[in-house]
Structures are given as C-alpha cells and as structure tokens.
Please model this.
Amino acid sequence: MTTANDQLPVDNLLTRAKIGLFVVGSLLLLPVLIPYVLVTESWNERRLRAALRRTACITCGNLLTEKALERVQNEAEESRQAMDRGNTAVRYRMMPRPYIAMCTVCGQAYKWVRERNLLEPVPAEVVAEYTQRQQARAAQATQGEALYPA
Ligand SMILES: [Zn+2]
Model:
C-alpha cells in the first residue's frame, strides 16, 4: 500500500527526468532551429522586397521599391541616435513602429501583411500619433541630458 509520502520522491524523480529531457531535447533541436530561423528570415525579406517592387502608392501612384523601406529604416536610425544623444542613464523602451515602409514621394505609410504578402496603407492618424509619442520620448531623453550634463 502506498501513502502520499511514498509517492513524493518518485514524483520528484519524474519531474527531474522531464526537465532533463526538455533541456537535452532543446539542445539537440538547436542545430535545426537556428538555420530554420535564418532561412525563414531571409525568405521573408525577399518576399517583402518583391511586394514593395510591385506595389504602387495608393495616394500618388509612385512605385514603392526598396527606397520606401530605407526611408523608414533611416528615420528609425535617426530617432534612435537622437535618443542616444540624450541621457544614457535614461532607459527608453523601443516602440514597435506601426508601419514598415513609406512612399518617398508623398509619405504615405504602409505595413506589411506577411500572410498575404502585400502592403497595406496605414492611416495618417496612426502615423501622426506614433510620431507624437516618439517626439515626446525624445524630449524626455533631452530633459535628462539637461539635468545630468556629460
Ligand atoms: Zn505616394
């Protein structure tokens, strides 16, 4: 006859075995998972660039191309640098950008719908709200700089 006390060591052993199996399994899967992620990422990148090349801006008719992507990437880099110039002691969270590309002619923003591989226009209000919040954060970082000059 077993009591609750008899079962406890067995449960611990089983739990340890499960954890051990999970750790070993995860390590064995890494050589498969890492190349999978790398291949998937580069495939997605190629799909996105293809979608950009075949998409005309809904506002001005300009073909988007990679330059629309670069415009947003440069903008992101500039705002990141602006925040870095502020106080380095002030931590800021990265805000996910609601758009991935922006027309180089009229500034219409687009997000990528990965499942359907197409670019969907982002309303100007969404972009304006994001920009406002981003500027408020940059101002906060600059205030930090004024309080603690380097
Ligand atoms: Zn446009």
